[in-house]
Amino acid sequence: MAITISPNPAMQDLKVTFQESTLVFPPSKTEKKSLFLSNIDQILNYNVPTLSFFPANKDYPPEVVAERLKLALEKVLVPYDYMAGRLKLNEESGRLEIDCNAAGAGFVVAASEFSLDEMGDLVCPNPGFRQLAIQTLPDAAHDDHPPLFILQVTSFTCGGFAIGMSVNHILLDGLSAKTFTENLASQAFEDKPMAVIPCLDRRLLAARSPPLVAFQHPEFYKPDLPISGPPVFDCKKEELEFRVFKLSPTDINFLKDKAKPADRTNPIATKISSFNVVAALIWRCKALSCEGEYDKDRISTLLNVIDIRSRLNPPLPSSYCGNAVLVAYSSAKCEDIENWPFSDLVKMVSEAPNRVSDEYARSVIDWLEINKGLPCGEYMVSSWLRLGFDEVVFPWGKPQHSGPVVNHRKDICWVFPTVDGVNALVSLPAQEMKRFESQFHNLFACDSCIFNHTDPTAQISKTIMVTGS
Q1: Cβ atoms of 354 and 145 closer than 8 Å
Q2: Residue 355: count of CB within 10 angstroms of its CB
Q3: Is 224 exposed, middle or buried (0-12, 13-18, 19+ CB in 10 A)?
Q4: Measured between alpha carbons, how far is 52 from 389 in angstroms, rounded to an integer?
Q5: What sign does the dihedral 23-26-32-36 (CA atoms) show?
Q6: Which of 137, 146, 275, 310 has its CA 20 to 30 A from that of 210?
Q7: Is 102 in contact with 26 (CB distance < 8 Å)?
Q8: What helix, strand, coil percent values describe the chain, rounded to 5?
């Protein structure tokens, strides 16, 4: 039986005081230039706040951590000069560029009146955590040209602290954010070289001339209204509820078993990974909880964010710094999603990335060059399972927990690892969340549903749902 844990409402205001808010600049002169942004970069103009929590360390009190990180940020802004720049629209081309003008990255030092223990489960999707990774500097003087990156260190009364990062997605995708974090951590040590030299040539993902669209791309659509610049891939801001759906190793193994086809004598082509079974589960819950009257003939499309570095020919360097991600799509009628065996859904999710070859990816980039389109799907799932943010070693050790911060996006589910399983962060309007939660519980509890145990000796663990609002 699933249970629900609600966070302490008092923890949604962390009583944060901002002690320092400043801009950090490269310590040496950097080249002034305009940085080309790919067609993938163009549509990702929104902030992604993330957090890493650290327990108290007697050798590294929060004030020392803040000092080390400020110096480390200065150092990395030399190779990562564009992160101290500002976005600008090229009026002639209608494309966004980064003006590498050394205008500075944001740096904030803050303190909370609470201890880490008082906040309870740090995985809990607490809206109050937004105070730990602010997206604009408190100083209104920078509002006209806000920094694209803000690093924040917040101390707690116990001596622990949080490192928050607010990053415009144009700057970094998941893998390049991990590389950046490794480099930042390396420069917080004394006399340690950069962990990875970033590849900054975004023209590696430039459209071909002339563009050659060789495939249909239903995972994107062209906006109807005329636009003067890149379209904005965003959601309207509305009241949302937040849940973290926690799946234990036992739960994951149960789903993997149900993902196997009924005829197990044939070779299994489906890649039954933890991500694929969780994505299929999330897709089913979302498709059957959509707003409005249930329509069995409605098509539901799941978008799976995938890295294309190794899919290109030649492959992109693993150190490519920018957005080297596309979406693989899976579509089906709601009636089929409800009635098909779970193995069919997992098969669709697992096979979707296979179509994203070098030629397909180049075709997408060329399609975006012509149409200036946006991703087209009901729901997007982004995996942090292999990014390894919690494995980055700072002088004060590894994070106690790393993960995304809840925001206003109701169209994206983040799947991230924990020490004891997999978590899925979901943000939805209240009534839709209620239906989603019901679908999720029913999948594990219903004796007659397609997820029911066939082995009477098997035991599924209690699936914990941590909630926030």
Answers
A1: no
A2: 11
A3: exposed
A4: 8
A5: negative
A6: 310
A7: yes
A8: 30, 25, 45
Q: Name, in order, each residue with C-beta under 8 angstroms of 78's C-beta and a sequence gap of 6 or more.
A: 26, 27, 28, 30
Q: Please, are residues 333 and 355 in contact by the beta-carbon 8 Å criterion?
A: no
Q: Please state, in angstroms and rounded to a whole number, the distance separating the CA atoms of residues 228 and 304.
A: 29
DSSP letters of 29-62?
A: ----EEEP--HHHHT--SEEEEEEEE---TTS-H
Tokens of 383: 């995996």
Residues forming beta bridges with residue 47, ordered by sequence position: 168
Give, in words, the CATH class of 224-468: alpha beta
Cβ atoms 110, 153 nearer than 8 A: yes
CATH 3.30.559.10: does it fit domain 3-205? yes
CA distance 392 to 397: 8
Find tokens 């923890």 and name the residue. 11
3-class state of residue 258 by DSSP: helix
Give, as one character, the DSSP assignment of residue 190.
S
Q: Delimit the CATH 3.30.559.10 region(s) of the chain.
A: 3-205, 224-468
Q: How many CB atoms lie within 10 A of CB 43?
A: 23
Token pair for residue 126? Answer: 């607490």
CB 394, CB 55: distance < 8 Å = no
Per-residue tens of pLDDT for the chain, all 469 residues: 333 344 455 567 899 999 999 999 999 888 899 999 999 999 999 999 999 999 999 999 999 999 999 999 999 999 999 999 999 999 998 899 999 999 999 999 999 999 999 988 888 878 899 999 999 998 766 567 899 999 999 999 999 999 999 999 999 999 999 999 999 999 999 989 999 999 999 999 999 999 999 999 999 999 886 666 787 777 777 888 888 898 989 889 989 988 988 765 555 566 789 999 999 999 999 999 987 777 889 999 999 999 999 999 999 999 999 999 999 999 999 999 999 999 999 999 999 999 999 999 999 999 999 999 999 999 999 999 999 999 999 999 999 999 999 887 889 999 998 878 899 999 999 999 999 999 998 877 753 344 443 333 333 333 333 334 4
HEC readout, 419-438: CCEEEEEEEECHHHHHHHHH
Type and span of the H or E element at 101: none
| CA 199 distance to own-chain centroid | 21
Hey, what amino acid is at 216? Q
Give residue 399's identity as a one-letter amino acid code. Answer: P
**CA neighbours closer than 13 Å in the CB half-sphere of residue 219:** 24
